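Q: what sequence does this backbone want?
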């Protein structure tokens, strides 16, 4: 009988963020609901931004000395985030991207040791 090899582990994660409302500064370009009242800036309309999902994968090998070596990819499909006007920022010049979202696809290697 075949037994799975417990030293190798593979995982797939989907991080889903629901859509939300955002300010729109130009009603002619992107305002999906220009007649809706913006509670923060009363003279502006509102735009509906769609949901976003990021897919991540990780492969891990457990060593015999209680170590763990991981190789992974976050944002496998290189999903781009929509731009938001109401992004919390702490200074001028911050990009209009939600800070919880990935900016690009990235790879990583990690080593962990348990004592």
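A:
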């Amino acid at each position: 009988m075949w037994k799975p090899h417990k030293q190798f582990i593979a995982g797939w994660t989907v991080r889903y963020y629901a859509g939300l409302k955002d300010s729109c500064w130009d009603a002619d370009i992107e305002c999906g609901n220009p007649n809706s009242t913006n509670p923060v800036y009363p003279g502006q309309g509102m735009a509906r931004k769609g949901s976003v999902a990021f897919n991540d994968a990780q492969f891990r090998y457990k060593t015999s000395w209680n170590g763990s070596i991981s190789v992974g990819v976050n944002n496998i499909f290189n999903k781009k985030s929509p731009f938001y006007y109401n992004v919390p920022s702490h200074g001028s010049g911050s990009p209009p991207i939600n800070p919880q979202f990935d900016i690009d696809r990235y790879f990583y290697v990690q080593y962990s040791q348990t004592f």
